[in-house]
Design brief:
about 130 residues; mainly alpha
């Protein structure tokens, strides 16, 4: 297997696994957004619970889906990176590393995708 094929398969696995797993966090937020119960969500940057919830939901659902299929991948990775760094470094700043771990891992995955691009197996490259 040549190195270009290995890189492209690695990027495909990173995109699909990272974005797919992030969707499991975003879809419940989407359901809660359209539900009947009032939204209770962190307000780490002082814009209100509703707007904070919407922005995180946008990053975890819309942007994660775009990364998953490889459409506007680098642009779509940016809101996810910001949301995950805010979650880890602001919302959970005082919490132990185990609480921040998922956010930091997602940030690392999406920073890698941002830096390397979507790879050959993506809508961007078709």
């Amino acid at each position: 297997m040549n190195s270009s094929l290995k890189k492209d398969l690695g990027l495909l696995i990173l995109r699909v696994a990272g974005a797919g797993l992030l969707l499991t966090h975003g879809i419940p937020k989407l359901m809660r957004y359209f539900g009947d119960e009032p939204i209770k969500f962190a307000n780490p940057i002082g814009i209100g619970e509703g707007p904070s919830h919407f922005l995180v939901m946008f990053a975890e659902v819309i942007c994660a889906f775009l990364v998953l299929i490889g459409l506007k991948t680098r642009w779509a990775a940016v809101p996810v990176i910001i949301a995950m760094l805010v979650a880890a470094l602001i919302a959970h700043a005082a919490d132990p590393i185990g609480t921040k771990e998922k956010s930091l891992l997602f940030a690392a995955i999406f920073i890698s995708i941002f830096l390397m691009g979507p790879g050959t197996y993506s809508v961007d490259r078709k």
